[in-house]
Amino acid sequence: MFTKANIRPRVAVVFGGPSHEYEVSCQSAANVLRTLDRDRFTVKPIRVTRTGAWIAADQAGSYHAMDVEKLLHLTRDELLEPKHRNGTNVAAAAAALEDTDVVFPVMHGGYGEDGTIQALLDLIGVPYVGNGIFASAAGMDKQQTKRLLVAEGLNVADGVVLDGNDVTIDEATKDRLGLPVFVKPARSGSSIGVTRVSRWSDLASAIELARRSDSKVLVERGVSGREVEVGVLQRPDGTVEAGPPLEVVLPHSTEFFDYDAKYTDASVELRVPADLDAEIVAQLHKVALDVFRILGCKGILRVDFFLQPHQGRVVPVVNEVNTMPGFTPMSQYPRIWKAAGIELTDLLTILIETAIQEDLPGRMPEMV
């Protein structure tokens, strides 16, 4: 644990893991490692391989030189060394995290964003950046997110969940949802496995694609309207604030904000702050803070909306939440806070210091 005797808190940046978003996690971590304030923190990169082995960088040299390439691209022979062959366990993780004051789990998708690594870190007793077990698990599962938000009166897109071997939906449900629909893995991110379906004849193949990422599949009504995202940040003193809305503007050739649009398409425009009336911004901020509260979040959250026109007014519809947003050079969350005047180095410092303070007894978030 961090004590005043330590000159600098010791931060382990953990990334990778057995997830479909492995590469995104590595890209996020590389950006975090390049940007963290070395005058304020001692930093140790730890890569979790696709098979679950924990590999720590050489603290004596490589991280000072920011040589993250070796850590991100260890060879196959290195991954097959006996010490890596059996995957992770609590003892191996604890050994990798030795002499760590706080963990920054820059991990997306299953294992890293669904409460799994959070449970492991709680078991070991190491504080960490971001959300705890419940918020992570609930935020990762789109079905559970919707249930919690609807129970509090928030607007979400209508949809149906297919479990087991279901390969289609009945005609009454098709009539209710209409076209287009979006078919999504219920517990995955970065739009991996997502398909926009504009013909019911394409539904079965879309479900099959989604099932490659998750056995539980969500078929969701397409919501028309501007796509806007709001970042939420908790500061070390416990206050929680929402950042300026960011609008995603897609080229006409792109049907939706899919994986390529998020990470490789330079023609996608991210406008921040979005050109919105003050009343709409206030609505978005209120709902984003409500989502943070409802899910029991800590530290960080991004809430994605559609602004749906309805009877002469605009209704914010919550599309998805992200309990550990990306930190790649293209990612929306850092852009939101840069527009608010917080550069990435300072944003990372706030998140880490909040995690350290949150580990103290009696701390409760305070919405502003």
From TrEMBL:
Keywords: ATP-binding, Cell shape, Cell wall biogenesis/degradation, Cytoplasm, Ligase, Magnesium, Manganese, Metal-binding, Nucleotide-binding, Peptidoglycan synthesis. Its EC number is 6.3.2.4. Its cofactor is Mn(2+); Mg(2+). It catalyses: 2 D-alanine + ATP = D-alanyl-D-alanine + ADP + phosphate + H(+). One of its GO terms (cellular component) is cytosol. One of its GO terms (biological process) is peptidoglycan biosynthetic process. The active site is at E21, S190, S331. Binds 2 magnesium or manganese ions per subunit. Belongs to the D-alanine--D-alanine ligase family. Cell wall formation. This is D-alanine--D-alanine ligase. It comes from Paraburkholderia humisilvae.
